[in-house]
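Re: that backbone. Tokens:
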């Protein structure tokens, strides 16, 4: 492995005469078990049902109700949910620190924050969040059994399957159900909903929500999309590839309005 000068990482020596597999380029999934006040949770459940109104799901048949496409996408500004956000965002900062980011050189922004309600038989199809950089899910209920529908993550690639497609299964030679094969060629990774569980993951990761198979309970969760930018400018240029702080952007005026397109401050 090659690293910039001064940042080399020593490669551990394998055991003599024994094959050792080294994990490379792992995907980070942050998991935090929080313990919210049951009364606060009950009030939030009631408020989500009020926000959902008469709807029972998204327009697509069998799809759970997601607030982001139903006009409920700013829970961080709602008095019932705003007190919850500082705790969730604190863990988001910790997640970034664990990945090696310097907090003083970043700004973190909430793009969207929306509720999801999944009734029995409903799912959320496979997708990712190309508009964001870091995503989070916070479960308001769930017992950890997975009956109400697991969150399933998919790998971006399967280099360890060697022959493309074998990790999917269908009678191939990979022992995916055994401990020998699962860590290296797992076709997905499931997380069961549990009340108070917070998950953090890169927004580019493909994921879906499996069917709620609990006929007696709806699954309630809150999703967040977060974006990274450079801090608010103090005269210095932002790092390459990291977007400047939104306050440093200039909107492009409609040509018909005759308004100046940019600030005339010499910058």
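Recovered sequence:
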């Amino acid at each position: 492995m090659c690293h910039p000068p001064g940042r080399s990482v020593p490669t551990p020596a394998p055991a003599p005469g024994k094959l050792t597999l080294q994990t490379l380029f792992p995907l980070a999934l942050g998991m935090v078990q929080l313990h919210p006040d049951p009364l606060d949770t009950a009030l939030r459940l009631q408020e989500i049902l009020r926000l959902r109104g008469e709807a029972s799901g998204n327009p697509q048949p069998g799809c759970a109700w997601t607030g982001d496409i139903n006009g409920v996408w700013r829970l961080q500004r709602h008095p019932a949910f705003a007190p919850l956000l500082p705790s969730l965002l604190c863990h988001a900062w910790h997640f970034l620190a664990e990945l090696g980011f310097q907090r003083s050189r970043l700004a973190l922004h909430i793009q969207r924050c929306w509720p999801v309600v999944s009734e029995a038989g409903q799912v959320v199809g496979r997708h990712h969040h190309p508009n964001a950089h870091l995503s989070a899910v916070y479960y308001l209920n769930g017992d950890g059994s997975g009956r109400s529908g697991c969150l399933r993550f998919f790998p971006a690639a399967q280099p360890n399957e060697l022959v493309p497609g074998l990790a999917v299964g269908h009678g191939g030679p990979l022992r995916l159900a055994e401990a020998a094969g699962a860590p290296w060629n797992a076709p997905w990774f499931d997380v069961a909903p549990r009340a108070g569980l917070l998950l953090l993951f890169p927004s580019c990761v493909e994921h879906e929500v499996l069917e709620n198979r609990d006929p007696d309970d709806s699954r309630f969760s809150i999703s967040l999309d977060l974006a990274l930018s450079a801090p608010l400018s103090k005269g210095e240029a932002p790092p390459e590839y990291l977007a400047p702080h939104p306050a440093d952007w200039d909107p492009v005026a409609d040509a018909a309005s005759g308004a100046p397109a940019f600030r005339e401050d010499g910058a």
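The chain is about 10% helix and 20% strand. The longest helix spans residues 38-52.
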